[in-house]
Fold each of these.
Amino acid sequence: MKHISILVPKGAILGSLEGSRQLFTQVNEFFKARGEAPIFHVQLVGLSRETPLTGGLFTVNTDVVIDDVAKTDLVIIPAIDGEITQAIEKNKDFLPWITKQYQGGAEVASLCLGAFLLASTGLLKGRKCATHWMAANDFARMFPEVTLVKEKIITDENGIYSSGGAFSYLNLILYLIEKYAGREIAVLSAKVFAIEIDRGSQSPFMIFEGEKGHADDAIRQAQLYIEKNFENKISVDDLASMLALSRRNFERRFKKVTSNTVVEYIQRVKMEAAKLSLESSINNVNEVMYKVGYSDPKAFRITFKKVTGLSPMQYRNKYNRAIA
């Protein structure tokens, strides 16, 4: 029987905690219905036996505290809420315990913003990690030694897992169920809980917001110029000249503080404008393309799909109610 320890951090988001518990315990029910022994021993593990959540609106009674668990097989770190550095500080006593369990052979999975707690252990150094796309800039700034994969819903590397934003944690739990209990049980779980299985990307949901929480005023000026003039053709050379910087110095500084190359940033701003137009207007795809400064339909469609995971027409049909 696999021992699963679902942590109950102070400030945990109740949904990811309880949703994980429900899915794993339901798998046990499937096995019992077939006359077989349950395969998971699921426990809620806290720093104390009672943990208030959502400003005291809810209180979770844990099964055990961390000192009671000498060894486990899988540690689940739910999403956390509130100001992130404060949340990490409140839950710092979990960090050495998580590290000890991993070093002892346990696997570890973070859900959504639980990635910040996982990264704080140091276990993610040099590894890939997913988290909520809205927190991507903060995560990249706080943990530059971690390879953040913004578009991913699931990462799996050396017994460490992570999931993308919000309810996409359900896809990681299904992924783990499939690993431990098989595809048939994972599909059954997906059907019972009405979860779309095998989603791999959160790109269709992402909204691009350029990182501006830095101290390089010249680069911020370039960012604002791009965002105000996206419908025009913007070259790297023109931007560098506008700021009286060499192209090489400009590109180096831009990538350092924004985590995007200049060309990537221009593309993402244009694609964000295109997405908004496809969501809210009756313009056809070509009209949207011209509006955001593209003249080559093939290049526009390739770039759009690279950013969103969908073709412009698929995106329009998905999000524009007036068209549906």
Amino acid sequence: MKPLNEQLKIIKRGVVDIVTEDDLIQKLKKGKPLTIKLGIDPTSPDIHLGHTVALNKLRQFQDLGHNAILIIGDYTAMIGDPSGRMAERPQLSKEIISKNVKSYEEQAFKILDKNKLKIVYNSEWFSKLNFEDVIKLVSKFTIAQMFEHDYFDKRFKDGISISLHELIYPVMQGYDSVVIKADIELGGTDQRFNVIAGRYLQKESGQESQIGLFTPILTGLDGKNKMSKSLNNYIGINDKPEDMFGKVMSISDDLIIQYFELLTDVDINEIKNMEEDIKSSRVNPMEIKKKLGFEIVKKYKGEKEAEYSKNYFEKTFSEKEIPYDEHKYKWNFSNDEITIAEFMKFLNVVKTNSEAKRIVEQGGFYINDKRINDFTIKIKKGETPFTFKIGKKVFGKVEK
């Protein structure tokens, strides 16, 4: 295994908090492989770049020679993690969770070394507990302890209901750590309460408490909210290469360095040099952003696709040559005329009429290269074929 200082340098990259660093050092000094835990609830079928921050950290531990365990929370997903949410999650059926699990595994292997990974499902132990076991487990916590969770406390003070099953979630995640005897648990900063619950439950069970290693929450494409599919501000690792590159190019300049540090394998010293170049205006941030897009696409799609995506972006958006014919659509509407909102919903660009109206009012909708300013106009089948462009990344040609 690498010397302690080298391990710490790699482990601490992109980490904002360790509970506790002294405990981590003591565990590493033993010179033995540690058990590293990362839990993922398959609440949707897709992994986006926000999910990959912790997955990348788990891969680093694999490369350092430690034992990586990926816990698929097929049981906890039926509750849904309440962390970071001001409302109760909708409960998922076993059928939906089962479909999501397979998709999660396939995508996780784009990051993790399959040959050095142990995958377990927490249904393996939770499905075997009887009600007496559950009572004994939850009795180790008090309501006061649960309300140390920021979101439980805030929801209670704001008069927002909290269901009993939500209070059990941190206990379940903590019990996962007891079962696999985790030395370190990885998670975003929103997982702090759940990880601390695991430390407490391990101690109560006579085990040595795990270390909590916390990574920052990745900011989404909107520049202000957590990357999330529900907010449509995400980059999926199954996105087409050119779409991934184009979405990276849409981020604000102040996110470039965060994305480099959390999403790529570029050397940290090189990243610091790029940060200085941006601050001193020695380099146009656009050029550094292109390098970022290239690195991210290369990581998930390969160097050939990364080069293609870069050239595609430069041709399409830098040179203003938009290849409409590469994205053709048939008029698959039951009516001969539709609203702009219906058209944008068909393309999965927006979910609501107000979103579509805002795009038009901001000058982001074009038909046949002409900007459309009137949201009330109808799009007619009789006017096909026509080209369209929505914002900077969505374009194509509609035919009869």
Amino acid sequence: MSRNLKAEARQIFEAGLKAVDPKEAVKRSVTLEGNRLHIGEKELDLSEFSHVWAIGAGKASASMAQAVEEILGDLVSGGLVIVKYDYRAPLQKIRLEEAGHPTPDENGWRATQQLASLVEKMARKDLVLFLLSGGGSALLPMPVESITLEEKMVTTNLLLKSGATIQEMNTIRKHLSQIKGGRLASLAHPATLVSLVLSDVVGDPLDVIASGPTVGDPSTFQDCSAVLERYSLREKVPPSVRSYLEAGTKGEVAETPKPDDTIFLDTYTTLVGNNLQALRAAAEEAQVLGYKTLILSSMIEGDTTEAAGFHTALLKEIARSGHPVGPPACLISGGETTVVVKGKGKGGRNLEFCLAAALDLEGLTGVCLLSGGTDGTDGPTDAAGAVVDGDTVGKALIKGLIPREFLAENDSYHFFEHLDDLLITGPTNTNVMDLLVMLVSAHPKTKVLG
């Protein structure tokens, strides 16, 4: 059977996206029976509360808020969610504000101040539903008073380009914020606070997802210092940031609230969706299409180019020997790799992954690889990622494109734009990291070139 591998890879990717639709994810986790509100394993009697508020931040928070409004109806008193530009959903009682991501902006700063002001007014008989998803760190910019928003933006951009992991980035973000690292829970105290979380972090650590505004923070100022040293950023960050973090290591600035703090006694968290859910749904779609399917991992991390090499090695092994699964085969994985930006081009980790993979797969027929961000945007681009095969490099050379030059310049977006191989989804209103689909048809072989 002749297969359109690129089309089938996109179909499998889209099935994974559908499974982590944030609105449906909330509805699977939240139900209302009379006055009894069930959120995960937690049951709340709404007659004990005077108001129910919904607040949130992240690329999926508007859709999550829409689900809350549909479930609770007139029981919702109001609220505020902050989303990335264009990641909207129609809301009735919960106000929506749009802001910058991945770099914070003035809109995010103003919206976060408004959210903090709302939360500070909460009393013991208020119930606060906090709707959190990936992107929440950038969308909740409220730096400590000695640091300006611009200085925090500079720090964020340095971390983004350094190759720091999301865990390391958020360690810094938490300690420079008035709202992250458990401080939102401190503002909401003594209200009852329930967080609904859509994870975009490998392993789903609650203190790392969007910098953990409502959970205790196990990281310290000493950890921040170690991150700056590891990536040679101590002398590059603004002086105010360096001074503040150094004061924290000396005990001159209060630490973030730790997990055993009493402010967390009336806080609860439920994970409503993650990367593995997307992988499982993608695998089911691949099986329907007739592929022998294997999920590798939802926890892929590390250098993007190195991760690409590992995945293409598996594709080559299947093409050569039929191991670890024989063709027609589909391998699926997820996670979030990192790119050290050295060039001046335009791209993101998925696009760079695909460009590195295309070089490895040059000349191999019957194979296809797709890597895409489930949020629909890869880095500062309008593409989720790209899709490649053994012909990608050859097509580029015919057009006069030198793939390794684009890779060295971190310009993978323009490379794939020339080839019409960008994966364009538009805003998906969800975010559970990246989804990688690899296909091997029944009879792959290597072309003899020249």
